[in-house]
């Protein structure tokens, strides 16, 4: 597995921050073969710094990164696939030529790089643009080419920084399917994203980072279980003050009042709701990843 242990990183300060800025403060997590790991956090939380250290772009002040129990070196990282936050495509180069070029940089033969490029262009839905310069492509199609560059050499590990940023739903589905296919083949995939609904849908495990610390980690199911369940009641056009004295919070959306609570007698709440108006919904719900994230970083 890919193991990140106690990473720490401080950037040198300037006139406004003489003590420097702590970017990572003991980040630890692991990604197993065939697992998709979602790395989430606010801007500046430490996601990109962690990924850059994994890929050797930055050096940690302390801590370790290992793959299959051994520290990473150049030869190991060469077998990884990386999509950086700052996309690294040559704008005037033709699409197929560019993907093949990066395949050759990873040590592939010309024949193998050409075949892998053709397969990926078909898989990602950009085969008809193979002879176009990258600068002629839409943002979504450039993202697909960037993913092809990360995949062309059949990497052992995928490290992707915001791969879904700015994509339309069709492009998101194409990229997600390609990543899921690699996961099924046993490749560990780690990607960062601000699209928490997408992370919740795709990922086996999630790590929530805040101010350089891992504040929550585990499967989505485990994180939900830790937060507990919520009773959600929707009452249409209720009598004023119907929820006075009941635990939880009430939000109003038009003529619908929504009560959400983790406490109280559910039968008593149901009786009050039915007496107050038309009950449209009454049921137990688990928190979404968005709600878990807000609670974790609060």
Automatic annotation (TrEMBL):
Topology in membrane: Peripheral membrane protein
InterPro entries the UniProt entry points to: AAA+_ATPase, ABC_transporter-like_ATP-bd, ABC_transporter-like_CS, ABC_transporter_ATP-binding, DrrA1/2-like_C, P-loop_NTPase
Subcellular location: Cell membrane
Entries under PROSITE patterns matching the protein: ABC_TRANSPORTER_1 (PS00211), ABC_TRANSPORTER_2 (PS50893)
Gene Ontology CC entries for this record: plasma membrane
Single GO molecular function: ATP hydrolysis activity
UniProt KW Membrane keyword: no
Record-level GO BP terms: response to antibiotic
Keywords assigned by UniProt, alphabetized: Antibiotic resistance, ATP-binding, Nucleotide-binding, Transport
Main location: membrane
This protein's record includes keyword ATP-binding: yes
Family: Belongs to the ABC transporter superfamily.
Annotated protein name in UniProt: ABC-2 type transport system ATP-binding protein
Organism: Nonomuraea polychroma
